Amino acid sequence: MKIVIKVGTSTLAHATGRLNLKRTGELCKVISDLKNAGHELILVSSGAIGMGVGKLALLEKPTDIPTKQAAAAVGQCELMYTYDKLFAEYGHTVAQILLTGSDFTAKDRHENFSNTIERLLTLHALPIINENDTVATEEIKVGDNDTLSALVAVSVKADMLVILSDVDGLYSSDPHKDKNAKLIEEVRGVTDKLFSLAGDTGSALGTGGMKTKLTAAKLCAKEGVDTVIANGENPALLYDIVANEKKGYTRFYA
Length: 254
Description:
The protein is about 45% helix and about 15% strand. The chain is built from ten helices and eight strands. It has helices spanning about 10, 20-35, 50-55, 65-90, 100-105, 105-120, 145-155, 190-195, 210-220, 235-240; strands at about 1-5, 40-45, 95-100, 125-130, 160-165, 185, 225-230, 250. An eight-stranded mixed β-sheet has the order 3-4-2-1-5-7-8-6, sandwiched between helices. The two termini are about 15 Å apart.
């Protein structure tokens, strides 16, 4: 099975912006085990700007473009160094790919990207993808990694996109505000009504929210790719998702 896993900043980092070492270590262990089982995995990882904020000891996420790009440049180094070290412990080689919107809209660049991904998978490497925040401008940026992960999943003809977030999935209302909110475990068709259930923003360090995840699921559904939204707090949940055990997350069927 070919699976794209998107992990958000809220999963990777503490509120300080510093890396959550325990959770990131568990995530890398589970992904390594799934690769050992024969699955082809691609990781779309947020966290560069958030980690740059922590590494540069900034008090909050910057709002101006130059500081965001500086934080991304610093944070991406730490992010890939950590992934390289952790995955190497389980015998897996990682490869960094930084993309902008142009890599999906320009035919030759998109073809080069797709060919590179396929060759990396053939060589049993683990592609780790992020938006190239250091150079991306409004004209060429994808904007958020939920959308980026969907574009990647469609491009590589994945069987499934898994979006790990700070919530269990799509709820009937905002679970942070409504204690009676109920998890919607199965969705067949992303409708306007579903978008009305989504909030507007993500975490303080991240860029996405539930609406961007629904947009990603809708994009994938049209192209025959299932999407799962799950809580990244427990990376071992990936085993249940791959086995299609229906518990504790939302699955959007293609």
